[in-house]
Amino acid sequence: MTEQSSTNTTQELHYDPQPIEEKWSARWQQDAKLYAAEPSSSQRKKYYVLEMLPYPSGALHMGHVRNYSIGDALARYMWMRGYNVLHPMGWDAFGLPAENAAIKNNVPPREWTLKNIENMKSQMNRLGFAYDWSTEVTTCFPDYYRWNQWFFLKMLERGLAYRKKSKVNWCPECATVLANEQVVGGCCWRHEQTPVEQRELEQWFLRTTNYAEELLRDLDGLEGWPEKVRTMQRNWIGRSEGASVDFKVEDSEEKITVFTTRIDTIFGATSVQLAPEHPLVAKLVGENAHLSTKVQELIAEQRKAKEAGNVGAIEKHGVATGRFAVNPFNGEKVPIWVGNYILMDYGTGAIMSVPAHDERDYEFAKKYGLEIRIVIMPRHEEGSNANPDEHVLPFTAENSLLINSGEFSSLSNQEAQTRMAQFAEQHGFGKATVTYRLKDWGISRQRYWGTPIPVLYCEKCGIVPVPERDLPVVLPEKVEITLQGGSPLSRVPAFVNVKCPKCGGKARRETDTMDTFVDSSWYFYRYTNPALKNKPLDTATISYWFPIDQYIGGVEHAILHLIYSRFWTKVMRDLGLVKNSEPVARLFTQGMVIKEGAKMSKNKGNVVAPDDMIAKYGADATRLYTLFAAPPDRDLDWQDAGVEGVSRFLGRVYRFVMRNANARAAKKTEVTPRLRAVQRKLHQTIKRITDDFDGRWHFNTSIAAIMELVNELYIAESELASSNLLDEVQRTLVLLLAPFAPYLAHELWETLGEKSMLLRQPWPKYDAAMAKEDEIEIVAQLNGKVRCHVLVPAEIAGDKDTLRDFVFKDEKVRVLLEGKQVVKVISVPGKLVNIVVK
Ligand SMILES: [Zn+2]
Ligand SMILES: [Zn+2]
Fold first, then answer.
1. Contact between 274 and 280 (Cβ < 8 Å)
2. What gap in Å lies between CA 524 and CA 541, rounded to an integer?
3. CA 196 to ligand 1 center in whole angstroms
């Protein structure tokens, strides 16, 4: 495309984003109220747009830029649509990296964290994100985490928080607990030769399982969530209906409770299988050294598979304990095995093995030569006589009949499931039951940089909650962090040793801190009123703002963060604090930013730093590129050449407006065909972008549409310059660009002589008549073959019969039809006319 100005002018009009962006960034930061929402008494419709708050690691990465560019475009669009927009930002400021950095650089976690926040905030400001910083939430500040403690006390009161023994990863060398991500290949991340042990520690748990059914059921109502996220949550909650059945251990008072979804096959059980970590295993193994070694091996295999994330595909191994259990349905003795594929945290950690009718059991029985007994057969057509031995094993169909099953033989399997569960319940050895994969949430961390858990242990009174009036339990500063010898807080006597508020005697403070997922479970409520002193939130304000209209973040948070947030909301509702049962109406999960096909990482050396891109191309171009290079829900493969292209496009916009901004006098009103084309393109572009914001968010096509529009403007520039259309065209172009490239849009708005605030300018309305194509190209076919094209006025192309008549009158078509007999005509409005001839 050649530009119509002289070389000299082009050079004068060189687009340099740096001074423009610095000027506007400074102006915006001076105006503290610029992005503030109106109070909940506002007459405007509210819109709460939220991006997931970052961990203050020190610098933004491109994934952040993409996430926030999507949210910012939406926020700006909704402001222009006249909504009362809440667009906050905060910091998920507690967590292990701060402790690691403290050791490495000898900086206290708080200092390190606050410095990082300062840096990332200035990056966000440089990028021009429209956040209302007056509502900023920083989770490591006592005025925030005191409410974590308050919620914990409320949950404790209601039995939703409790303490129990639980296994943790323990490095004997560090003498401390390791997070799962600190266990590398079964060894400590700092001591690569030291195998990590499992230790039992008293831990605090929240009863997420109390809400399992509701968390599952309410997913159906979350229609604004991606289906894949709902599916992930359903699987995570993992509801299965079945029955529990007790098998007595022979020569013992012990029993093994198995959970099965197929009680109808219980007569085919030929062994009972225990998870290697099942509490009974140690008793059954006793002093037997060989068995004990074997069990340790199974534990190690299972842990390895868990770490690799493929426990479902583990190569199955097991060992017979030499002991037997009694099947309560037929009194039969079956061997008790320990299997590496049985998980302690699913069901009861014990199963009955029915090799004939379960894939996994079949594979195991074949390997170890266990008996395979058929107890169900397919339902056959009436009168047929099937031999069950001929089935292909394992036979697992639900629609089947029982055989070899005592009094239950010949029942359908559905009926058998009900009757056998009832039978078990009547005889006191089992019952129908529902089990969930979802577990209670273990929140204890043997860490320093987190919310202190507000309980005391008194020698006389036992567990004593910290009285509400004594909140917050403030995290002490100047604590030595070594990652050794348990929680750092346990080595701070002034923190640990307290007086019992009940009896005045000696008490010891809990030294564990809370999982940081607690912080992020409710932070978005606090944004509505972050300075509130006497309560975590104001119910009336929450009723106005919630649920969140649009939440945007990475799909890696599809499970934990989003399940905990939903759980927290339901607890808050039951405490009478909020009226909504779900926090988020619509969820969007953006794709990753990758380079050369791989995730950006320091190790691969393929990291693109936002600061570098801003210095080279400006914030607008960087932001615009993250929106333009791929649909937001897909991965974006970073190409430096692509940013450069986007930057050149912004330069074209800049030069066009700079050249024509002041040509405002003596305007012609005539609309030539070329100007009509511009007008049409303009309104089509408004429609496309508006539809995309309201619909599928394919900002890449929105931006492509603006690029096409700018091409049209260049083609028509000389005619536009003397036309009264110019004003509308330039203003609209700037408005359309405002959500995506706010700096340039503001600069050009001012250049156009506008004094009003661009952020609150009404979003342009599209005019259907203006957007309509004047003529549409219709395909003319003869016997299904394309023969020619006919230009048809747009207003008649939509009507089947009128379209047919118009095409028949076309000269080219008339020639084609000469001497032929028309048998049939198929007219497809807006597309084609097919004429069948003899
Ligand atoms: Zn270690
Ligand atoms: Zn006491």
1. yes
2. 12
3. 8
Cα(172) to ligand 1 centroid in Å equals 7
DSSP codes, 286-310: TT-HHHHHHHHHHHHHHHHHHHHT-
What pTM did the predictor assign? 0.86
772 CA distance to ligand 2 centroid (A)? Answer: 80
Cα–ligand 1 centroid distance for 52 (angstroms)? 33
CA of 446 to the centre of ligand 1 (A): 14
Closest of 516, 551, 561 to residue 233, by C-alpha? 561
Q: What is the mean pLDDT of each run of 10 residues along the chain (838 residues)?
A: 45 87 96 95 96 96 97 98 98 92 89 97 98 98 98 98 90 77 78 86 95 98 97 95 96 95 96 95 91 93 80 91 96 96 90 95 94 88 52 82 94 94 97 92 91 97 97 94 80 96 96 95 97 96 98 92 97 98 97 91 89 97 97 94 97 96 74 90 96 93 96 94 93 98 98 95 94 86 92 83 90 89 92 92
CA of 191 to the centre of ligand 1 (A): 5
CB distance 86 to 528 below 8 Å: yes
- CA distance linking residue 596 with residue 606, whole number of Å: 8
**Rounded distance between C-alpha atoms, residue 307 and residue 315, angstroms:** 15
Q: How many residues does the chain have?
A: 838
Dist. CA 572–CA 564, nearest whole Å: 12
pLDDT for the residue numbered 632: 94
Which residues lie below 8 Å from residue 17, measured CB to CB, with a gap of 6+? 617, 618, 619, 620, 621, 647, 650, 743, 744
> DSSP string covering 566-617, please?
HHHHHHHHHTTS-S-S-SBSBEEEEPPEEETTEE--TTTT----HHHHHHHH
Nearest to 705 by CA among 684, 725, 726, 691: 684
How many angstroms does the Cα of residue 511 sit away from the middle of ligand 2? 18
pLDDT confidence of residue 6: 42
Question: Residues 156, 147: contact at Cβ < 8 Å?
Answer: no
Q: Which ligand is nearest to the CA of 458?
A: 2
Ligand in nearest proximity to the CA of 182 = 1
Ligand nearest to the CA of 197: 1
Check whether the bond before 195 is cis (ω within 30° of 0): no
Beta bridge pairs of residue 586: 224
Amino acid at position 414, single letter:
Q
Task: Report the SS3 class of residue 260.
Answer: strand
Q: How far is CA 19 from CA 126, 539, 645, in A?
A: 12, 45, 20
User: Which residue in the block uniquely carries the two structure tokens 């070694």?
Assistant: 293
Q: What is the DSSP letter of 668?
A: B
